[in-house]
Design brief:
The chain is built from 20 helices and 16 strands. By secondary structure, it is an alpha/beta fold. α6 packs parallel to α8, α16 runs parallel beside α20 and α17 packs parallel to α18. The radius of gyration is 24 Å and the shape is globular. This is Beta-glucosidase.
Length: about 525
């Protein structure tokens, strides 16, 4: 790379503005539109989603091609970022390790394993050509109704989130940039900011005691990047502004008071919390003014291009001081110089394959998921000869999730467990579905029910309550958020697996067969 390009004074205005944008695109290879974003519009950063990823090899080649375009047309490498939290938010689902999610890791109870997840994941991502990970989630999930965080958080206790967050960051930052999210905390909301603007009414004293704790500890331990949340904190911001657009939060609080020196990145600017209230284009400039270094427009090429033109016009009209832009961009360039390795054009996927497709790492990941399986209440299952398995089919319950199409529990049961009858139910079983299940259940002497976010889809809870009236031995196994016990007193035997992933399905099958002793400890309290 061209060293003089790491000095903002040597960049044209378009090049400077392009460094502020992180853009998403469609497709698994670069096309003319993607090249144009880098070549013509000077966009300096990319975010990848599952829509861009088919396999480890394809992803590696895509990232090589993207960086070659940056080398040819910008002389500055791209940040190539991804939401690879593990568990339910895993963009790379095939051709690399399927790592466990946050709450799975904390239920397994080992900080050392958490550090190793960060380290191994960071190493894989680096060798795939990704240099920035939008993880870990440092939100304290203290609201059991939270529709978007849940098991993406380590715990409902600030000190636990903090310890696991630090361990993960330390491991990840051996290799690439880790990003704490969603500052100053998305844990106590009951609204998903993908869909609307949440509000958190707590005063500063409470926020400092709970929400801020993991973020402050991460800052003090050298976190490289922070993602802002689209949430209105009336005690922190003015005029109902979400934190992403608030100078009071990003500059006064995060930079000046808490002393954060790393990169500030926004959550997606096309999320409804922003787009419906401010418009993504106008809000992109507001975020940069407030203190953000990089704003993300993950969808809509039109808005990406418009945002660059809008910021340029604001500079030319002197509505915003170019010196402020220079300051934002210089920090990006400093981090790129330090953390982005130059693409070796002679290297191929064969050179990294052993790191990306590593059997030992895969085994290590599985063992964490197995060690996390928790008996929260009652007794372990001893499968009877006359049992009925009632399974809720999962779906992506928020835009942060990915589709869960290519693995399911039922196929595994049919293949590996004879004589276990199966009923498949939608995530929101109708009254007719529930009545049919109750009728069928009467013929069995044991019921096994899997739930999937019963805290959000409470029809599942209603079904459990009805089934409990039959007086048949019932075992409930939660395949995501472990909050069913908040909503019903009728669960006598309760097990939590924290995620619906290829690893957790293997663990479930092992449990059903009676080959698993449950060792995990649930990292949330029940009231």
């Amino acid at each position: 790379m061209n060293n003089h390009k790491f000095d903002v004074n040597n960049l044209s205005l378009d090049e400077k503005i392009g460094q502020l944008l992180m853009f998403g695109f469609e497709g698994e290879s670069i096309n003319q539109e993607t090249i144009e974003m880098i070549k013509t519009y000077k966009a300096g950063n990319v975010i990848l989603f599952t829509r861009n990823i088919k396999s480890g090899e394809q992803l590696y080649n895509l990232n090589q091609d993207l960086q070659k375009q940056a080398e040819d047309h910008l002389g500055i490498p791209l940040f190539i970022a991804i939401d690879q939290e593990g568990g339910m938010v895993s963009r790379i689902q095939k051709g690399a390790t399927f790592f466990p999610g946050a709450m799975t890791i904390s239920a397994n109870g080992s900080l050392e394993s958490c550090y190793e997840v960060g380290d191994k994941m960071g190493n894989e991502l680096k060798h795939l050509g990704i240099n920035m990970n939008f993880a870990p989630v440092l939100d304290v999930n203290n609201n059991p109704k939270n529709p978007v965080i849940g098991v993406r958080s380590y715990s409902d206790k600030p000190e636990v989130v903090s310890l696991y967050g630090q361990a993960f960051i330390k491991g990840m930052q051996n290799h690439i940039i880790a990003t704490g999210k969603h500052f100053p905390g998305h844990g106590d909301t009951h609204v998903d900011s993908h869909l609307a603007l949440p509000k958190v009414e707590y005063d500063l004293e409470r926020l400092e005691k709970v929400e801020f704790v993991p973020f402050v500890d991460a800052i003090n331990n050298g976190l490289h990047a922070m993602m802002s949340s689209h949430i209105d904190f009336p005690h922190l911001t003015k005029d109902g502004l979400p934190t992403t657009l608030s100078k009071d939060v990003l500059t006064t609080l995060l930079r000046e008071k808490l002393g954060f020196k790393g990169l500030i990145v926004t959550d997606g600017m096309t999320m409804k919390a922003i787009d419906n209230n401010y418009g993504s284009v106008k809000a992109s400039l507001m975020a940069v003014e407030a203190g953000a270094n990089i704003y993300c427009i993950c969808h809509s090429r039109e808005k990406q291009i418009e945002s660059l033109a809008y910021i340029k016009q604001a500079i030319l009209n002197r509505e915003i001081d170019e010196k402020l832009i220079d300051q934002r961009v210089q920090l990006i360039l400093d981090y790129k110089k330090q953390y982005v390795t130059r693409v070796d054009i002679n290297q191929t996927y064969a050179d990294v394959k052993d790191i990306v497709e590593n059997k030992e790492t895969q085994k290590f990941s599985y063992q964490i998921v197995e060690g996390a399986a928790s008996l929260v209440k009652g007794k372990q299952l001893k499968l009877s000869n006359n049992a009925l398995f009632i399974g809720v089919m999962p779906k992506a319950t928020t835009i942060a999730d990915e589709a869960l199409g290519h693995y399911d529990i039922f196929r595994g049961i049919e293949k590996e467990i004879e004589n276990l009858e199966i009923v498949k139910l939608p995530i929101q079983p109708s009254h007719i579905d529930i009545l049919a299940v109750i009728e069928k259940a009467k013929a069995y002497d044991q019921l096994i029910v899997t739930t999937y976010n019963g805290n959000v889809y409470q029809e599942q809870i209603k079904m459990i309550n009805y089934l409990s009236e039959l007086g048949i031995e019932m075992h409930v196994i939660s395949m995501r958020n472990p909050y069913d016990l908040y909503y019903t007193k009728h669960i006598k035997n309760y097990v939590c697996l924290y995620e619906y992933t290829p690893n957790s399905i293997k663990v479930l099958l092992k449990y059903l067969k009676g080959d698993l002793k449950l060792k995990g400890k649930v990292p949330v309290n029940y009231e």
